[in-house]
Task: inverse folding
């Protein structure tokens, strides 16, 4: 029988200080019985000889110091899992909220998860085809990677994330696939969009949904991603499924963390976020990967909205230092009406080199994507110059690059959200666009690949030019 | 063993009571699981302990055991090709014991106690030996001969010395001093927070060759020197560190993954046994020690990991080897300091970092150096330290970068703008510097070519001039430049794209020997001179820019080391192409 205390001294924000406590442990799970009889949960943040500092996941509204009961449960927070969690909707602490029956857990697992031993990790190298050229061609996703989407208010990240979840497949393999979706602090409408998308595509049967919406207690957000990842690890490493985890929106998670830190009066780091934000985020993001000798994998796509589209804000900044790349969305492209508005230059996939090439995608993948990057960068530079000095000031070569960058945005980056391009289509499209550039400028692709993949486009181009010249003559 | 009890737990920090003999930085065992920890503050009878493992489930009343020892590493045969966590527990052994996930309270020793090593004595009975003298050797891996030295504070006359197979704990020699006997084992222990002793420090004078063109040619680091690589995320810090670990001409590599990604360590673990060392032809893993404390592993162990690494580095330096240590990333180490400091409720300095950040960073980098080692043979060893820094938002004015720059002599500044253009390595040629130029120039002059110094200076001048001209172009357009200036702009582009850019993932391009670097740059500069000469004579600039030979210059980086002669041919062909109508064009036709 757990000990029960009614000795709360202070209630500050989401925290309560309980006095005269004996035998509480650090990070222990706590049950709170509010004066109105409702039951909430919390965990111990700090213990001394006779006090315990507890954070309440359900908030502290309606809580008082005289009638509230605190029970220390002698274990850290756990979540019950079984195969039946697929297709179900839970709150941030893992309670079913879809009206269905409670889960009969096959096992209960601590939500904090132990770190994967680097020796046990298997290097992620299975290319995931998302069908989106700007990702597959330039910043490919591989199984076991953590690749966040850096977005901003008003940008179509839900649409992109849903498209990735819908279209993702591994070339030539049919394996069990699941989506774990964790909503933290987002609105009902946004969460509902995902749920409807999953239902529409029948992906719901293979999805586990955890929602903590904007009006749910903020502190619950600290537990939600851990609960979701615990479920994901169970599906991946116990049941051998390939799990895609979408965490949205990490910004609200960090804000909840800041709220707790401020209530504890900790010395703040940058912008009021706690100094341990990096470590804390790492304990979430690092829970992705593959394990040697196990079939499943956990791939993470966290979404975060950058305050004021500022990449140097601590949340995107620290995220970028932990994750294996980032997909950045661009407001400029979005304004131009280009979907998906992937800002390809600052976007990056760190694991791409191992996931692409002969036997995985195509031999030319690496070099052609490097060439596209370089050419697009140069084209954008030229266009910036043209804005200041006028197009006439550009050299002929720069004009070609400028035109390239426009076509690249309009044809390579732009696609419909129902359009699922194969990797061959994506790469060929890249070559086609490159064929408009002078050959001597293509320094990053080999002669051999140019012959093999580009020559078929060159002729058409030459024909075009010839016909243009004819037109000019006619005029 | 003295025992105390816990009175407070806050994250990785535990406060214990009832300890009268605790010394600063003593090792303690916390709780029933006997988690490793270290005393970092003493107030009266209470001691604050940073715990190297997850503290969930600890509470007041739990026991704390004092060991009376400082946090130490085990040194001896068996270090190479190992992968350790921050407190020298072999991760592969942990995996065998507890499975794929790291759980708490696993006690394993740093060196294998069962394995027998073939010890070959080189000293003989009757020799007077003292600290640092070599007693014998163990062929630890195919390429590294592990020298068994007389441990610190031990000396005497060799009474007995054995040959044959021994474990690290069995005696291999007996020394006699004033009638007392010392049994010498291969295993030594050394506290991580104290530098190992040496006879004398001497200035570094030889470059650490990395095979990376921008580093070797423009910003070299000396063997025994210090360097830092600050850069925002995605600018390629880790790739540079990996490249150094792969190709640097050091004999021993220590790679510390400090608070970084798990998959990166896996990458190293899977790749290094496959890759061949360009100098010895053997797998790189055979000269490498890995220390992995990934970002989700306990934060206090991260703080210890850099010291664990540097101590192992010093040990190999003491054998007379050249050691290169990479720490990726020192910012995570500093953050660990900050977290512990915050929990100790210390008065924070800048951005919440403790006021002693600067002195700690300096003390760490100061453990690098070229030394005359202890021991009769006066062998020289070097320990080069390269630290990555991850400044928040890429802002170099932050405390970790600033404190690092004050002590290191080489600065490789990474720029995200370069990375966006896929210019890798994204080392900014305008901002970076090396204070080892003079020392290394001598080496280039003697070993490669006397012309190098001038070549390098000319190329750098062009790059700097380009930056100025770019401003002008941005304001008034390319037409405002003179012909000579346009040639210069083109040459600068050529230096950037054909020389500085280097593809770490390309089979050939990943490593370039010094000689090839020299010839490549020489070809680029030769084209520049010929072009200037040609425009002087009235050749239209378009003809020069369209010269077919430029494509060959741009592909020079993909020539294999065996084909180095082709670079000399290229030099001649540049000259001849300018003499033919190819470049001179219709004007002379």
Result:
């Amino acid at each position: 029988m757990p000990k029960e205390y009614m000795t709360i001294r202070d209630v500050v924000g989401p925290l309560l200080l309980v006095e005269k406590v004996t035998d509480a442990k650090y990070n222990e799970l706590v049950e709170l019985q509010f004066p109105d009889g409702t039951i909430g949960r919390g965990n111990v943040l700090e213990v001394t000889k006779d006090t315990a500092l507890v954070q309440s996941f359900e908030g502290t509204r309606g809580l008082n110091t005289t009638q509230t009961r605190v029970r220390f449960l002698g274990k850290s927070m756990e979540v019950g899992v079984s195969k039946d969690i697929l297709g179900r909707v839970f709150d941030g602490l893992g309670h079913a909220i879809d009206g269905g029956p409670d889960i009969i857990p096959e096992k209960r697992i601590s939500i904090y998860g132990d770190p994967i031993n680097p020796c046990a990790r298997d290097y992620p190298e299975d290319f995931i085809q998302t069908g989106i050229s700007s990702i597959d061609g330039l910043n490919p996703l591989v199984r076991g990677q953590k690749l966040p989407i850096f977005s901003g208010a008003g940008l179509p990240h839900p649409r992109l994330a849903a498209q990735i979840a819908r279209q993702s497949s591994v070339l030539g393999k049919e394996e069990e696939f699941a989506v774990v979706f964790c909503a933290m602090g987002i609105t009902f409408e946004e969460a509902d969009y995902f749920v409807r998308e999953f239902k529409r595509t029948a992906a719901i049967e293979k999805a586990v949904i955890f929602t903590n919406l904007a009006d749910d207690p903020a502190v619950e957000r600290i537990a939600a991603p851990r609960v979701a990842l615990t479920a994901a690890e169970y599906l991946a490493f116990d049941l051998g499924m390939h799990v895609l985890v979408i965490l949205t929106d990490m910004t609200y998670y960090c804000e909840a963390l800041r709220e707790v830190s401020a209530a504890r009066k900790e010395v703040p780091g940058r912008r009021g976020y706690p100094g341990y934000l990096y470590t804390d985020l790492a304990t979430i993001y690092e829970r992705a990967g593959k394990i040697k000798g196990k079939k499943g994998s956990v791939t993470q796509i966290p979404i975060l909205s950058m305050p004021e589209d500022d990449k140097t804000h601590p949340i995107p900044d620290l995220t970028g230092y932990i994750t294996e790349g980032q997909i950045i969305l661009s407001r400029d492209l979005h304004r131009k009406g280009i979907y998906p508005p992937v800002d390809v230059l600052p976007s990056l996939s760190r694991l791409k080199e191992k996931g692409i090439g002969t036997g995985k995608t195509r031999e030319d993948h690496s070099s052609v994507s490097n060439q596209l990057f370089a050419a697009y960068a140069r084209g954008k530079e030229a266009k910036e110059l043209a804005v200041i000095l006028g197009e006439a000031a550009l050299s002929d070569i720069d004009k070609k690059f400028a035109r390239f960058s426009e076509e690249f945005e309009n044809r390579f980056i732009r696609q419909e959200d129902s359009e699922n391009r194969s990797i061959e289509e994506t790469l060929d499209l890249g070559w086609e666009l490159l064929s408009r550039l002078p050959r001597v400028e293509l320094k990053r692709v080999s002669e051999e690949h140019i012959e093999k993949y580009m020559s078929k486009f060159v002729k058409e181009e030459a024909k075009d030019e010839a016909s243009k010249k004819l037109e000019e003559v006619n005029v | 063993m003295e025992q105390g009890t816990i009175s407070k737990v806050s994250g990785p920090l535990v406060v214990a009571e009832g300890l009268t003999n605790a010394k600063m930085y003593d090792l303690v065992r916390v709780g029933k699981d006997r988690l490793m920890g270290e005393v970092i503050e003493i107030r009266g009878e209470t001691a604050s302990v940073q715990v190297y493992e997850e503290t969930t489930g600890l509470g007041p009343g739990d026991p704390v055991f004092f060991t009376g020892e400082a946090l130490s590493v085990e040194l001896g045969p068996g270090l190479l090709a190992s992968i350790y966590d921050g407190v020298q527990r072999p991760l592969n052994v942990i995996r065998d014991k507890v499975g794929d996930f790291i759980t708490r309270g696993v006690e394993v020793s740093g060196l294998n106690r069962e394995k027998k090593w073939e010890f070959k004595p080189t000293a003989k009975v009757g020799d007077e030996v003292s600290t640092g003298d070599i007693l014998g050797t163990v062929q630890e891996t195919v390429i590294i001969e592990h020298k068994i030295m007389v441990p610190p504070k031990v000396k005497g006359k060799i009474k007995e010395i054995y040959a044959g197979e021994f474990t690290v704990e069995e005696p291999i020699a007996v020394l006699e001093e004033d009638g007392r006997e010392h049994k010498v084992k291969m295993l030594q222990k050394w506290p991580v927070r104290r530098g190992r002793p040496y006879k004398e420090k001497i200035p570094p004078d030889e470059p650490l060759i990395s095979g990376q063109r921008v580093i070797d040619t423009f910003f070299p680091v000396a063997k025994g020197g210090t360097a830092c690589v600050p850069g925002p995320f995605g600018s390629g810090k880790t790739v540079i560190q990996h490249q150094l670990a792969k190709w640097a001409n050091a004999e021993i590599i220590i790679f510390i993954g400090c608070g970084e990604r798990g998959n990166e360590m896996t990458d190293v673990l899977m790749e290094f046994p496959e890759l061949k060392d360009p100098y010895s032809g053997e797998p790189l893993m055979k000269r490498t020690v890995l220390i992995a404390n990934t970002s989700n592993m306990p934060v206090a162990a991260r703080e210890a990991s850099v010291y664990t690494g540097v101590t192992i580095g010093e040990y190999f330096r003491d054998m007379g080897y050249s050691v290169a240590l990479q720490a990726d990333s020192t910012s995570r180490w500093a953050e660990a300091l900050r977290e512990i400091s915050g929990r100790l409720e210390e008065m924070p300095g800048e951005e919440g970092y403790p006021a002693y950040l600067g002195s700690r960073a300096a003390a760490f980098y100061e453990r690098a150096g070229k030394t005359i080692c202890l021991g009769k043979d006066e062998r020289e060893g070097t320990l080069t330290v390269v630290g990555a820094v991850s400044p928040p938002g890429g802002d170099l004015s932050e405390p970790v970068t600033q404190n690092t720059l004050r002590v290191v002599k080489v600065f490789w500044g990474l720029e995200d703008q370069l990375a966006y253009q896929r210019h890798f390595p994204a080392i900014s040629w305008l901002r970076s510097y090396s204070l080892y130029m003079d020392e290394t120039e001598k080496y280039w002059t003697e070993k490669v070519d006397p012309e190098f110094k001038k070549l390098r200076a000319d190329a750098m001048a062009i790059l700097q001039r380009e930056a100025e001209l770019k401003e002008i172009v941005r304001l008034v357009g390319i037409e405002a430049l003179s012909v000579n200036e346009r040639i210069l702009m083109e040459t600068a582009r050529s230096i950037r794209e054909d020389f500085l850019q280097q593809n770490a993932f390309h089979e050939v391009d990943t490593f370039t020997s010094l000689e090839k670097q020299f010839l490549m740059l020489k070809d680029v500069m030769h084209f520049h001179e010929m072009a200037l000469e040609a425009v002087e004579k009235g050749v239209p600039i378009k003809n020069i820019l369209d010269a077919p030979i430029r494509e060959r210059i741009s592909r020079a980086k993909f020539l294999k080391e065996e084909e180095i002669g082709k670079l000399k041919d290229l030099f001649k062909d540049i000259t001849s192409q300018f003499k033919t109508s190819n470049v001179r064009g219709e004007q002379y036709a």
